[in-house]
Design goal:
Blueprint: E1 9-13, H1 20-34, E2 40-44, H2 50-57, E3 62-66, H3 83-89, E4 93-96, H4 99-104, H5 109-121, E5 125-130, H6 134-139, H7 142-153, H8 159-162, E6 165-169, H9 183-201, H10 203-207, E7 210-214, H11 222-226, E8 233-236, H12 243-253
Parallel strand pairs: 1-2, 1-8, 2-3, 3-4, 4-5, 5-6, 6-7, 7-8
The chain binds phosphoenolpyruvate (PEP).
């Protein structure tokens, strides 16, 4: 596997943290710390923080993303946000199918696919999350499960659109728990995801796909995880709320 074929991407997922003014302060703190990155740097912030985040990040190498998107273009969907709205406010990325959305908000593989198509059709880049629960890992079905989640998410996505897709492998048992997959476990599953994408789009397209690992990645373990041949970046929760820690992860991906 040749990592040079695909961009390394470090994305922060701030979850439901930071008010608009706190967002501006944290981005201003991060900007000089990540200015020399050779990887792509993305911060996915709460909806109300998008506009101030875009403004604070302007002129820097930090790109801004959202954490969810609705699949309809407009209409009677109280409380939802469309892909066109995200695009117009200056978001470039959107996380889709995070395990917290799947676990707490009824997200399914089918709605993940609908959101993926809506976001891509609006010109957004997507970070599609897949991953297994601990029971599923113990059953030995991780690779089949994440391959299936990936294939369903990509239904109807054209080869051209695939270039705007990032897959984030996030074992649910590792998210926010301090338990990290070993570098070998992360690499094995990322390789399985790449294999599933190769079945759909061919090996060249799969080799060009950025596949992140996420789940308690932090300043201490990032280097080992990111050195794996199939780990092309990280989706970072807790550690993306601390400028210094996040910048150390960005530096590890910039080597
Ligand atoms: C996440 O929210 O996607 C995540 C990986 O969280 P954490 O890094 O806190 O485990």
């Amino acid at each position: 596997m040749n990592k040079a074929l695909r961009p390394a991407v470090i994305a922060g997922n701030w979850k439901m943290n930071k008010t608009p003014s706190e967002t501006v302060a944290l981005i201003n703190e991060m900007k000089p710390l990540v200015a020399d990155a050779t990887c792509d740097v993305v911060l996915c912030v709460p909806f109300v923080d998008l506009a101030p985040a875009v403004q604070a990040a302007a002129g820097s190498n930090i790109k801004i993303g959202a954490q969810n998107v609705h699949f309809e273009k407009s209409g009677a969907f109280t409380g939802e946000i469309s892909a066109d709205m995200l695009k117009e406010v200056g978001a470039e990325y959107v996380i889709i199918g995070h395990s917290e959305r799947r676990t707490y908000f009824g997200e399914t593989d089918v709605t993940v696919n609908k959101r993926t198509l809506a976001a891509l059709n609006a010109g957004l880049k997507v970070i599609v999350c897949v991953g297994e629960y601990l029971e599923q890992r113990e059953q030995g079905i991780t690779r089949e499960l994440v391959s299936m989640q990936t294939k369903i998410a990509l239904g109807g996505v054209t080869p051209e659109q695939l270039k705007q897709v990032i897959i984030a492998y996030e074992p649910v048992w590792a998210i926010g728990t301090g338990k990290t997959a070993t570098a070998q476990q992360a690499n094995e599953v990322n390789a399985a995801i790449r294999g599933a994408v190769a079945e759909l789009y061919g090996q060249a397209a799969a080799d060009g796909l950025t596949i992140q690992y996420g789940g308690s990645m932090n300043a201490g373990n990032a280097e080992e995880l990111l050195a794996q041949p199939d780990v092309d970046g990280g989706l970072i929760g807790g550690a993306s709320l601390k400028a210094k820690d996040f910048s150390i992860i960005v530096q590890a991906a910039s080597k």
